[in-house]
Structure formats: structure tokens, C-alpha cells
Amino acid sequence: KNEVEQSPQNLTAQEGEFITINCSYSVGISALHWLQQHPGGGIVSLFMLSSGKKKHGRLIATINIQEKHSSLHITASHPRDSAVYICAVLLIQGAQKLVFGQGTRLTINP
Amino acid sequence: ETGVTQSPTHLIKTRGQQVTLRCSSQSGHNTVSWYQQALGQGPQFIFQYYREEENGRGNFPPRFSGLQFPNYSSELNVNALELDDSALYLCASRTGGRTEAFFGQGTRLTVV
Asked: Min CA distance, A48 vs chain B (Å)?
């Protein structure tokens, strides 16, 4: 079992829909990152969370440390939101490396 | 703009050759980690350097090696390239003890 699991793996929705992507982890972490990756590969950091909730524009990220779970929400989704969204956790033990989820491929149709 | 620059952006090599990928981090980022992302997969941890010493390694063979330099740049070297080494290689840097990480745009390596 992977240390970081995302769901769903693929998500297709219509423009305007509310989107939720989930991330569960099984290890102790000091922070969790939500990342966006467009075709071509470059990664953009959307949020870094260690507790609570953050909002930036139409994006909202929440984390529940006790339940080891985080969600990324997109309100009023738009075709330009189509990308792969990746959850990555910074381990609290050892070398404190980043461990990535496998990503969620989001497609928003007009 | 993350302040983390990888070069080259794309590279094609022949099986058996050697390759060096580079990552230039922000000043003060004394921790750099490298990841391999195969098509359709999440990035996999290769290794991490802290103050020019390797302090963590994933499940990659010894032909994957690295260096970190005092000017906050680093290298990933891969010897005896195999077809399965074709992937996007990402570096991430941060200041040790801090949680915010900054990501390069990646180097896409194709081995033919």
C-alpha cells in the first residue's frame, strides 16, 4: 500500500461543477502540498498545509491531521483547470523527504 | 516563478550512455531532492542531499548518483542508461527545517 493515496485517479466533469480531490496518507507528516501539473510536466505548487484550511481564488484546500486526510476543492470549474493534481507529504521522520501520490487527472469539458 | 531551474528541459540519449541533469536552487536552499516520474505515475523519490551530503535514498540502483554544490546547485547522474529510465526528472529544494518546497519544471529524458 502506498504511503499516499489519491482518489479518484481520473475525473471528468462539466464546466462549472464543484470538484473534490482527496488525499489520504499513512505516515507522520510535517506538511502537505497540493501541486498542479500540466502537460509538459512543470509542477506548480498550489498550497502547503500543516493544519486547517487555505483558500486561493476558486481553490480551497483542507487538511485533517487526526484523520490523515486532505481535500482539494475547485469551485466553478473551468476547462483551464484541466491538469493532473498531485498531493505530496513531507515526512516528519528520517530524511524528511517528500512522498507523492500518484496524481488525479482532471478534465473539465466546456 | 519558483526560483528553481532545471536544465536541460528535454534530452534524448541512447541506451548505455550516461546523462547529467542539473538543478539550480534558490540561495539558502540547503536541501534538494530528486524524483523520477514515469508516464502516468506520481513522482518517485530518488535521493535527497542536505548540505552537500546524501541523507536519504529511494529504491534506485547505484547507477543513479548525485552531487550538491556549495552554490545550491545539484546534479543527477545516471550511468548505463536503460529504456525504462525514460521519464520526467524533477528536483525540489527547500531550506532544511522548513516545510515549504519549491519545484523545478523538470527534465524530460527519453532513452532510445
From this structure: 7
CA separation, residue A110 to residues A16, A60, A82, B41 (Å): 9, 22, 11, 26
For residue A93, the model assigns a pLDDT of 79
Our CA dihedral for A27, A6, A101, A77, rounded to 10 degrees, sits at -130
Share of chain B above pLDDT 70, in %: 98
Taking CB atoms and an 8 Å limit, are A45 and B2 in contact across chains?
A: yes
Extract the C-alpha cell encoding A2.
502506498
Reported in sequence order, the residue ranges of chain B that DSSP labels E, i.e. its strands, are 5-7, 10-13, 19-24, 31-37, 44-50, 53-57, 64-68, 73-78, 87-94, 102-103, 107-111
Contact B19, B11 (CB under 8 A): yes
Q: Answer for the pair B111, B83: CB distance below 8 angstroms, yes or no.
A: yes
Burial (0-12, 13-18, 19+ Cβ within 10 Å), A103: buried
Contact B106 A90 (CB under 8 A): no
Question: What cell numbers appear for B35 in the block?
Answer: 524524483
Whether residue A97 and residue B45 make contact (CB cut-off 8 A), yes or no, is yes
Find the helix or strand (DSSP H, E) in which A88 lies: strand A83-91
Tell me the pLDDT tens digit for each residue of A71-107: 999 999 999 999 999 999 998 877 788 899 999 999 9
CA atoms within 13 A on the CB side of A83: 19
Q: Which residue of B has its CA nearest to A102?
A: B42
Amino acid B1: pLDDT: 63
